[in-house]
Design a protein that fits this description.
4-stranded antiparallel β-sheet, single chain, 8-stranded mixed β-sheet, globular, alpha/beta
Length: 417
């Protein structure tokens, strides 16, 4: 469960002009390593509802406020449930989206990629008669989501938008809006929109709310207190401000079409973004709050409004919990452990002691107090770091919680044969 394969063929062909002579194709069943789901899913009759997930790349929790994202803030505070301690399943797009769409730990990425095995979420939605739209401002081929999450619904993917990131976000969100306008209200829909502007600090000129100057940034020379870092952060906030405007247009469309009340709406991100608050720039480098703590706002359909009266849920939650939540609400009889490492967020006894967050060479177990960081290499599994979750300060005299580590190892082999 912790083996990382090394591949060179695609790099050699793309950059060195070396083309591999293919030998006879093997007949090994690529699904042979997977035991997913553990049991076939069965359903009881439940009322169907529309599901809309809007995600913006590299959007951390702390950047959603009344100045940077007024529409999302209003949505969060008035219409939705705010999961205030929600974490992505990874600190990069690949692992963040994987954990969101499967509800399993990102350590399974390579197994599912090799098997071209999609998520049971989409198996179930198709079985229930949902119309599905998967809309990416960026390519869904890299990371390889066409070969993983969406392997069985490739015909539902729209990802060939052109232009700068903000231009592609306008086109992708307009595609969603037009789809909503044409949608047959007698059928349930599942739509997933992934916008890209915050990742590249991209926005139209009229969205320069935070007065970011027009100049090139030398990212090699940036440091914690440099002007370049402040400029990058201003551009980042402008990009979030722009995404916020696209979110409003989509919500307004749902309301004008009379579809808002019975639609579950979720806003989130694949991972966060850091500007040296904890010693790093960007993402894909650390399991700190800036890179892993992401927004997760859920507006329930009116037919399910009795699930909770809370407007803020402060217990730990994870991207892993989305799939078991949706499938449970849609009437799946199976326990979540048959197909997920997550749990139904609205189950009365929902509680997490920790969340798992994955990376390329290291993984982490995050509790409210501590973040345990351990290597993917078997020989270094118990050579780990312990950090304070909020400050990310190293705690050299703190011992790892071995029970949690063993529990995660068990999770990481639960869906392997």
């Amino acid at each position: 469960p912790i083996y990382i394969p090394f591949r060179f063929n695609s790099f050699a062909y793309k950059h060195l002009g070396i083309k591999q002579n293919k030998s006879v194709k093997n007949t090994i069943n690529k699904n042979a390593t997977l035991n997913y789901p553990k049991k076939a899913l069965s359903f009881k009759d439940n009322k169907k509802f529309n599901i809309l997930i809007i995600a913006s790349d590299a959007t951390r929790y702390s950047v959603i406020n009344s100045k940077t994202a007024p529409n999302l803030t209003k949505f969060r505070d008035i219409e939705a449930i705010d999961f205030t301690n929600h974490y992505s399943g990874g600190y990069s797009t690949r692992f963040g989206i994987f954990s969101l769409m499967y509800g399993i730990n990102s350590t399974y990425w390579f197994n599912f990629l090799d098997a071209n095995r999609g998520s049971v979420l989409f198996d179930s939605l198709k079985k229930l008669g949902y119309e599905i739209d998967i809309i990416f401002s960026t390519s869904a081929s890299w990371p390889e989501f066409r070969k993983t999450c969406f392997a069985k619904i490739k015909e539902s993917i729209k990802d060939n938008f052109k232009g700068r990131p903000w231009q592609k976000d306008i086109k992708s969100s307009e595609f969603l809006i037009e789809s909503l306008k044409k949608h047959d209200k007698n059928k349930p829909f599942f739509s997933f929109l992934f916008m890209d502007a915050p990742h590249g600090y991209s926005y139209p000129p009229e969205f320069n709310k935070f007065d970011a100057k027009k100049q090139n940034i030398n990212y090699i020379a940036v440091s914690k207190d440099s002007k370049e870092t402040k400029l990058a952060f201003a551009r980042y906030k402008n990009a979030v401000y722009f995404i916020d405007s696209r979110f409003k247009k989509i919500i307004d469309t749902l309301k004008s079409r009379g579809m808002y009340d019975e639609t579950m709406i979720i806003y989130t991100s694949d991972h966060g973004q850091e500007f040296y608050e904890f010693g790093y720039l960007g993402h894909n480098s650390a399991f700190d709050e800036a890179q892993t703590h992401v927004p997760f706002f859920v507006k329930l359909p009116k037919s399910l409004s009795n699930l909770t009266t809370k407007k803020k849920i402060t217990s730990l939650s994870s991207h892993l919990d989305l799939v078991p939540t949706i499938l449970s609400l849609l009437g799946v009889k199976n326990k979540s452990k048959d197909y997920s490492n997550g749990y139904n967020l609205f189950k009365k006894d929902f509680k997490r002691d920790f969340v798992f967050c994955g990376g390329w060479n290291y993984n982490s177990i995050k509790t409210k107090k501590y973040t345990y960081i351990f290597s993917n290499r078997p020989d270094e599994l118990f050579k780990n770091e312990i950090r304070d979750t909020k400050s990310y300060k190293l705690l050299p005299n703190k011992s790892v919680d071995t029970k949690l580590l063993i529990k995660v190892v068990d999770q990481n082999r639960a869906f392997l044969k």
